[in-house]
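A reminder from the course coordinator: this example appears on the midterm review sheet, so study it carefully.

Given structure:
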């Protein structure tokens, strides 16, 4: 899974996708597809794409209220594993994509 996959999913489903970085900071991919690290005070000394490879847990936070609820009802966030998020994206596993590259 790539950062671009998260960006597309966040835009398509109007979600904020949160995940913890190895340095303890949190990355948020907004509903506009922007990857932000709110606690970052200076130029990053890490690569988000590289950090993403070690993330196993994500929090999905809907921006729009759920259908059938009032506008003031808070959207429910939920925690998902890497496998669940990958299936939502429909991204092939790394090994599987390597097998199909030569077809």
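Designed residues:
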């Amino acid at each position: 899974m790539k950062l671009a996959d998260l960006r597309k999913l966040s835009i398509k489903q109007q979600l904020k996708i949160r995940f913890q970085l190895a340095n303890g900071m949190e990355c948020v991919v907004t509903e506009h597809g922007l990857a932000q690290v709110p606690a970052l005070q200076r130029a990053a000394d890490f690569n988000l794409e590289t950090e993403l490879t070690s993330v196993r847990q994500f929090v999905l936070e809907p921006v729009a209220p759920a259908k059938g609820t009032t506008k003031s009802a808070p959207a429910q966030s939920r925690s998902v594993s890497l496998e669940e998020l990958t299936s939502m994206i429909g991204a092939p596993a790394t090994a599987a994509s390597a097998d199909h590259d030569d077809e």
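Residues 3-12 form the longest helix (10 residues). Helices lie at 3-12, 48-52, 82-89, 94-100.
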